[in-house]
Amino acid sequence: MTALAHAPLEDRVRGLLAGDSGLLRDPFPTWNELRDTRPVTRIDDAVVLTRYADVRELLGDNNVLYSRAATRHSERYERARSSFSPTGREAFDAVLDQEFQQLVRLDPPDHPRVKKLVQAPFSIRNLKAEMEDRVRRRVDSGLDALAAADSPVDFKHFAFSLPLTVLGDLLGIPFDDLDQIHGWAKRIAENKFNADSETAAIEAADAYAGLLAYIEELLAAARAAGAGTGLIAALLESESSGAMTHDESVAMVALMIFAGHETTSNLLSIGMLSLLSDRAQWEVLVAEPDLAPAAVEELTRYVTPAHFLPYVAAERRELDGVVIDKGDTVIGVLAAANRDPAVFAHPDSLDIRRREARMHVGFGMGTHSCLGAGLARMEAATLFRRMAERFPAVRLVDESGIEWGGRSLRTPLVMPLHLGDAAS
User: Which of 66, 88, 236, 281 has the most neighbouring CB atoms within 10 Å?
Assistant: First the structure.
């Protein structure tokens, strides 16, 4: 147990924002206490929002009250940058410059322009036509491999590799290159926003250099081959017409590797962990596999794959007596909003039949809703359904022994399962 487990509330919140592994084991009591007692509160140099209504407003804001792009020059990042050596500052700048070219951190007018150009491949109609059969084949072949492996199996590894192979199909990445992509993505995800460590900045910048060089080669090969459909084709067409820059194309591919990989992996792994921890809910899914899409919505609420997101205030305002000055960092805690009792009845209970589950904010909101949410839903629903159909007796080996890592992207490091006898 972490030394912070019984610390004052503010210290526990600081610990969660910094990724304290002990608190990550069960962060919800801390998030719930903060929302119920201090829903708008200043923690050091940031204002933290935990109430559903406030987080929903934050996520749906289109650069009126809050800015995504301005986070690039937030006080926290500028203070960190000034403390680094020249080499560390150069690395930190390289990481932030790349991150803030990506769609998720753009403000108008760039955000709507870029999103409109790339959203067609992610429509439900196109996903069903282009990806549904591929996702099903990837899930089944992965489960075949798990069934053939020695017990217990590490479900976390499978949950991490499945979205990556699906992304390979979507982006045209050869299967043999996926381990390398995985390595770069993991190093970047672990280090990219660590404003407390010069070493982390250098590590993230080095991994980014390798990933971006690979993306350049991927786009060049697709351009030479005349790619016909899908995301890469849409990017190349927009680039050739002048509607997007080459740097924006590279940033979009990088974003898909992160957003379509890390967050989906969390939904799959922690979602499965949550179902098996509540055996009654698992048995409901086993009895009714058609509930898998509804289970995905409830698990997205209950798990919240990305727990919090930072913004910068675009103007001065007062909220619940707390003054938010222009330029202040504002952190929206999605995990707290998704368990707000003002919106969700018995919010700390998992209920895959929950009617209001789709009101969750796990995939963002409004114009900034997650571009790849449809693909993530497809992968998760297919996996949970096939697990329930093929391995109804699956069980956790030792939930208490699972170690946790990450920050906003809270994730189990390993997740051993006994699959049990396969269904006939």
Answer: 66
Query: Packing angle between helix 262-277 and helix 292-303, nearest 10 degrees?
Result: 100
Query: What is the Cα–Cα distance from 58 to 310, expressed in whole angstroms?
Result: 10
Q: Which helix (H) or strand (E) holds 28?
A: helix 28-37
Nearest to 160 by CA among 137, 185, 191: 185
The span from the CA of 204 to the CA of 317, in Å, is 35
Q: Tokens 């004052």 label which residue? A: 8
> What distances in angstroms separate CA 312 from CA 13, 63, 75, 329, one per listed residue?
19, 10, 10, 5
The helix-helix angle for 262-277 and 246-259 (nearest 10°) equals 10
Residue 97's nearest CA partner among 250, 321, 256, 233 is 250
CA-nearest of 194, 280, 216 to 18 is 194
Judge whether 305 and 299 are in contact, CB under 8 Å.
Answer: no
CB 76 within 8 A of CB 36: no
Can you tell me the distance from the alpha carbon of 338 to that of 32, in angstroms, rounded to the nearest whole number? Answer: 10
Instruction: Give the pLDDT confidence score for residue 362 in this predicted structure.
Output: 95
CA atoms of 12 and 6, how far apart (whole Å): 8
| 3-state secondary structure (DSSP) of residue 246 | helix
Token pair 């497809």 is at which residue? 378
What pLDDT, on the 0 to 100 scale, is given for residue 201?
87
| 268, 383 Cβ separation under 8 angstroms | yes
Separation CA 319–CA 49 (nearest Å) = 10
**Residue linked to tokens 């962060």:** 27
Cα R_g (the chain), whole angstroms:
21
By the 8 A CB rule, do 86 and 195 touch? no
- Rounded CA-CA distance 29/227 in Å is 49
Q: Give me the domains of the chain, ranges plus CATH numbers.
A: 9-418 (1.10.630.10)
Report whether the peptide linkage leading into residue 152 is cis, meaning its omega lies within 30 degrees of zero: yes
> At 3, is the pLDDT very low, low, confident or very high (cuts 50, 70, 90)?
low
Residue range 166-207, pLDDT digits in tens: 988 888 888 888 888 888 887 887 777 666 788 888 998 999
Strands 46-49 and 329-333: parallel
Measured CA to CA, the distance from residue 66 to residue 107 in angstroms comes to: 10
**What is the Cα–Cα distance from 306 to 361, expressed in whole angstroms?**
10
The CA-based angle 405-362-31, given to 5 degrees, is 60
The single residue listed with the structure tokens 């067409």 is 237
